[in-house]
Task: inverse folding
């Protein structure tokens, strides 16, 4: 699956759950932030990644340092 289509699928699924979403329309040099989802008043930052195997904790930690 195309990475951009994957990001869009993830955000569309969140929207279909009734959650408020904000898309990041900048696909390159976006600092890893693909969108924002608000669930029950709490804001979640979305960074969509497709990995085989496991997710390296460093990928998560890098996102935390950037935002």
Result:
């Amino acid at each position: 699956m195309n990475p951009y289509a994957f990001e869009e699928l993830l955000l569309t699924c969140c929207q279909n759950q009734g959650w408020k979403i904000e898309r990041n329309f900048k696909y390159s040099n976006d600092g890893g932030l693909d969108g924002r989802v608000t669930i029950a008043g709490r804001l979640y930052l979305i960074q969509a990644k497709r990995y085989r195997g496991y997710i390296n904790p460093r990928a998560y930690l890098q996102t935390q340092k950037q935002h």
